[in-house]
Amino acid sequence: MALSKTNIAVVLMIGFVNYLEWAVVLTSIYPYILSLCKDTSSSSVYLSLAQSLFPLGQGISQPVASVMVKKLRRIKIVLISSIIIAICGNVTYIAASEVDSVALIILGRALAGLGAGSGGVAYGFIGANTSQENRTKFMSYFRVTCMAGVMTSTIASATFLPNFGKNILGKATRLDEFSAPAALTILFLCICLVLVTFVLDEKDCVPIGGSNDGESVRRSLMSRGVLLGLMLYLLNGFVTTWVGFVLPLVAYNHFDFNLHQYGWLMVGVSGTATISAFTVALVSKANCMARNEHSDWRVLVFSYTFMVTAIVISYLGSPSVSLPAATKEPLFITGVMMVFLTYSVSGVILPSLTTKYVAKSMMPVIMPYCIAAMSAGKVVAPLLSKAELAIQGWELLFMGSAGITLVGFLLFLCLYRAPEPEETPLLQDRRHAGSVEESPILASLEQGLMNPQGKRMAEVSVYFDRSDEEYRRGTQKAFQS
């Protein structure tokens, strides 16, 4: 069943708000922590915790949301619950300035992460209600909308949020440049809550949640193609969050950026990512990509080659390299933009590639696990980066990340296998044996018993362990003969 325009709009809004919620506090969270932190030497520890607990909550909420949708067979209840939890997280984040507590910043980000389970559900909803021809297109649109949320939030952070506490609206609401981003997020989350509650229509849609057979989920997750997809999702999450952790430390502590300058840096980063995602979404519709089974592989090879190069370039602009500050700053910013560009390109291609390895009914089950894998990478990145800084400093921080990216890229090259033809379930459910009433043609296929009249000669027990595609091909051959 095709998605209606109304449902498409609601699902795209979910993606927009999810990423706006993630990025709107990214610009100001480090200065926010510094303003409340009594021991400034602990600020990087608090930053790593805040940036790790959000994806940790997200990683937990993705499979939980998938299981709940599978049990309830409804998407609305799960989405509404997730949005309410995200609102509570942002309220807690705002309250940190009122009670002068860094702990509430960290708790607020953890709660917001727990409310981010709607992303995987939205991907699954698209996969379950689109054809193979349209799936890449709609997933690309969803990704572009997500990046538009990032760009919108960073533009807001760079323009009116730095001086928000001094304008009329800031004085009236008693919000400042740190609490205003979370208030903006709450506003959009409330709009999203209204749309999901009153506009999303599930009547003419395939109920998502996949197969009831738990064995099918385990077998799908063990598919080589899905495992490679999970690995690349984890790698994407690691690299981008590693950059998100390093970027404010370098910008604020070594390049002496203020909040306004850092905001415009994030506008450039998010704008680059948005444009690249939109470009790939348009190119993916072309026949040269849509009908070429190796097109996804080629794009990913280019992306990760480019990503390793980008990390090396950003390293040349790091504090440990003995270059003039005027030279290091452009190098670092260029490397960061290249990382986000390649992350955005692979982020459009990966959902399409991963879903080609499983039956359509399994997509809503598999996609939340992919988002959870990306969240796991986001959890590890700040904690590992903090440890690397403590052990050996900036060299290990950059070269270690480049090495991890290179290893993941080489594993992908060595283990990649092109997916089977479209819509072929590689990991089909077993149909149990039983004494069934069958058509003459099917009985003859299993037992070789067909008389000229095509009548049934005996009742047979049939054990089918084949895909629907093989089943249809066998039936067509019988009709032709």
Can you give a write-up of this model?
By secondary structure, the protein is mostly helical. It has helices spanning 5-23, 29-36, 43-72, 76-99, 102-114, 118-128, 132-158, 168-173, 180-198, 214-221, 224-253, 259-283, 287-290, 295-316, 325-355, 363-391, 394-415, 440-447, 468-480, and strands at residues 434-435, 461-462. The chain has a two-stranded antiparallel ribbon with strand order 1-2. Helix 1 (5-23) runs antiparallel to helix 6, helix 3 (43-72) runs antiparallel to helix 4 (76-99) and helix 3 (43-72) runs antiparallel to helix 16 (363-391). The longest helix has 31 residues, at 325-355. The chain is globular. It starts with a helix and ends with a helix.
Q: Could you provide a short overview of the structure?
A:
The protein is mainly alpha-helical. It has helices at residues 5-23, 29-36, 43-72, 76-99, 102-114, 118-128, 132-158, 168-173, 180-198, 214-221, 224-253, 259-283, 287-290, 295-316, 325-355, 363-391, 394-415, 440-447, 468-480; strands at 434-435, 461-462.
Which helices and strands appear, and what pairs or packs with what?
Blueprint: H1 5-23, H2 29-36, H3 43-72, H4 76-99, H5 102-114, H6 118-128, H7 132-158, H8 168-173, H9 180-198, H10 214-221, H11 224-253, H12 259-283, H13 287-290, H14 295-316, H15 325-355, H16 363-391, H17 394-415, E1 434-435, H18 440-447, E2 461-462, H19 468-480
Antiparallel strand pairs: 1-2
